Known about the structure:
The structure is a single chain. The chain is of the alpha/beta class. The protein is built from eleven helices and 14 strands. The chain has a single domain, classed as Rossmann fold (3-Layer(aba) Sandwich), CATH 3.40.50.300. It is globular. This is ABC transporter ATP-binding protein. Belongs to the ABC transporter superfamily. One of its GO terms (biological process) is peptide transport.
Amino acid sequence: xxxxxxxxxxxxxxxxxxxxxxxxxxxxxxxxxFPGRRVLGRAAAPVRAVDGVDLELAAGETLGLVGESGCxxxxxxxxxxxxxxxxxxxxxxxxxxxxxxxxxxxxxTRRHLQIIFQDPHASLNPRQTVARIIAEPLLVQGATVRxxxxxxxxxxxxxxxxxxxxxxxxxxxxxxxxxxxxxxxALATGPRLIVADEPVSALDVSVQAQVVNLMxxxxxxxxxxxxxxxxxxxxxxxxxxxxxVMYLGRIVExxxxxxxxxxPAHPYTRALLSAVPLPDPAAERRRERILLxxxxxxxxxxxxxxxxxxxxxxxxxxxxxxxxxxxxxxxGARTAACHFPETD
Length: 344
């Protein structure tokens, strides 16, 4: 019998999509538990990496997913494209539940779901040519070798490289160029949704802006939806329409980026934003910095109630015993999982 998990979202606050927009992607109660490693012959507690995540993503929208390292962002992204199997919950794409489809059943849908990995060189086969790397998804989908190579040349032009690079190998490219190849591969099958798993964090700062601008342009030209996973909140603000903040495997705040950045409701969101440098030195000196005490709790032994209460400056007794649900705050364009959200 499969374990049951409590739904983390108040029914009245499920969607922050505006205007009754039908979601391209809908995630409900997504859970991923990894078995604990054995230590000195003893089995360790299982690790709940993702703990009841609910998300919706509209066609043509870019949703940012932010949070500290180890909070479950990448695990969530990999489950959405079925590189990892969920322990519980559902993933619906274009209204169809794809959570438990077999590889054969998933193949027609997989072409519309692609991923860009964090480390471009680690995600590209060093023994294959660029032509083979980009063409492989097309060959799997049944394209001819010639058609796949022609498409690879088109995609290289689209991402700012050229057909003259088709027969080169990944080690011959810089990090930024290699990531462009990874983007071209993700675009090969004509996807509708791309999970971008920290696509610029492994790149030099001078190159990051080029790759971000490229993805922004491609999203607008091709009508793509992105789940943009990142640490850099400045980059997220630049490219995303909405933002979801993740802590200890759970979404603690999600909604319109302007409202979230201007008036964060959750204490953890406030702390994250207070760490983003401001370009104005005078404003940087005046603003309040929120310093969180201690480290995030282990997902193998999460605290009771609100997972953030051991580090929260506003925590009260109810926070230690009752897990808060995501509820509408402010104008209704976002939700926050906090018993005492900020409302200014």
